[in-house]
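We modelled the chain as a single entity of 112 amino acids. Its sequence is:
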Amino acid sequence: DEVIRHLTCELNAMHLKFATVCSSNMNRSMEAHSQLKARDFIVRSFGTGTNVRLPGPSQDKPNVYEFGTPYKDILEDLRKKDVNLYTQNGLIGMLERNVKIKEAPERWQDLD
């Protein structure tokens, strides 16, 4: 614990910037974003897919959103569709976390 704190202070002093990436900028990249942000690192997160794709009621019916759609809007949409299903599969909790971190999923390829 003390070693991690020391390394975190040293790395922060270097003003390093981090980027985290996953397909839809929803799960892995946002968890890493959350962990780095909590330790005061400068961090941004991105997705690399063509759209934000989340599990739907069946494998052949995913929920698809454009990058830039606010996390709060996706959260509201899934609550309207089936709050029990999306709470049970973890999407509601994941989106509640994401809303606290940043406004919307960003696509790496669209970065200026």
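As a brief sanity check on the tokenised model: The mean pLDDT is 93. The chain is about 45% helix and 15% strand.
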